[in-house]
Write a structure and sequence with these properties.
Keywords: Lyase, Metal-binding. This protein is of the alpha/beta class and about 290 residues long. The chain contains 11 helices and 10 strands. It starts with 5 loop residues before the first strand and ends in a 5-residue tail after the last helix. Bound molecules: 3-hydroxy-3-methylglutaryl-coenzyme A and magnesium ion.
Length: about 290
């Protein structure tokens, strides 16, 4: 039997957060409802950040309230601080994610905190979630390159990974936020992170700006990673990472994984339909 590799769908969050045009809540709900039929175990649908910083995610509570929850699917949300965590709980997010960075420049630009300050803010979120029985995922941005600080030392990523591990994150997603990583830098970064966190607790999150995301996924597969974040239609970017193009497209990752002999358990016809819907929402020709 083919080995299972999970694609964690992040399109409704990472894909749409960057949109200038306000996307109607009903359209977001329709996208999530379609994705819920594709076979994902986890879909990131919401982000409880400051609406002043990311207006596109201001209706996250309404999105979570409006979707038809499919059994067995975990609907995830970003929570940068306790205020975000409380909003996520109220909205019924099944799991939450704290998100830090490997570089000071990006941490400051994205969440207005140094790396150390951000970890202090995450700690109570992780503790509260533990008490509530809510799984917490961790993200690290800029794992190979930073739009502010340049190339990133693998050890800097490993340090933050160790801190998130110690807070109890069940999985740590390693983000090539600006899509500048190449298999060599991804491999070197993973070698350092694997000293701290085993492959079963890591995920790859590759943006595709440099068109190397699929190659980077292969490099990460070689290091034992079996979870990859992706966004239908290749949507995405990060509002605080200039030049961050779309996440790697879910449909492309699913096809590459199938070619490599892995099973993703996904229905490609539903994913293709969702990719068309997502592109149309952005005003890009389907
Ligand atoms: P701050 O201004 O330092 O926060 O922002 P503050 O604590 O000083 O509060 C300022 C105001 O924001 C207050 O309101 C707070 O109540 C409010 P006021 O009194 O002025 O009316 N506030 C909130 N409101 C709603 N929800 C909250 C919240 N927190 C404070 N949770 C903060 C700090 C972290 C809030 C801000 O910087 C922020 O929201 N940043 C989010 C940026 C973001 O969402 N970036 C994109 C996601 S990360 C990403 O895409 C990367 C990833 O995909 C991986 C990768 O690709 O690398 C995950
Ligand atoms: Mg991202």
């Amino acid at each position: 039997m083919a080995e299972f590799v999970e694609i964690f769908e992040v399109g409704p969050r990472d894909g749409l957060q960057n949109e200038k045009r306000q996307i109607p809540t009903a359209d977001k709900i329709a996208l999530v409802d379609l994705l819920s039929r594709a076979g994902f175990r986890r879909i990131e649908v919401a982000s409880f950040v400051s609406p002043k910083w990311v207006p596109q995610m201001a209706d996250s509570g309404e999105v979570l309230a409006g979707i038809a929850r499919a059994p067995g699917v975990s609907y995830a949300a970003l929570t940068p601080n306790m205020k975000g965590y409380e909003r996520a709980r109220e909205a019924g997010a099944d799991e939450v994610a704290i998100f830090g960075a490997a570089t000071e420049g990006f941490s400051k630009a994205n969440i207005n905190a140094s790396i150390e300050e951000s970890l202090e803010r995450f700690r109570p979120v992780a503790e509260a979630a533990k008490g509530d029985g809510v799984p917490v995922r961790g993200y690290i941005s800029c794992v190979t390159d930073c739009p502010y600080d340049g190339p990133v030392a693998p050890e800097a990523v490993a340090r933050v990974a160790a801190a998130l591990r110690d807070m109890g994150c069940y999985e740590i997603s390693l983000g090539d936020t600006i899509g500048q990583g190449v298999p060599e830098t991804v491999d070197a970064m993973l070698a350092a992170v694997l000293e701290e966190v085993p492959a079963e607790k890591l995920a790859g999150h590759f943006h595709d700006t440099g068109r190397r995301a699929l190659d980077n996924i292969e490099a990460a597969l070689g290091r034992g990673l079996r979870v990859f974040d992706a966004a239908v239609g290749g949507l995405g970017g990060c509002p605080y990472a200039p030049g961050a193009a779309g996440n790697v497209a879910t449909e492309a990752v699913a096809r590459r994984l199938a070619d490599l002999g892995y099973d993703t358990g996904l229905d490609l016809s539903v994913i293709d339909e969702a990719a068309g819907m997502a592109r149309a929402m952005r005003g890009v020709a389907a």
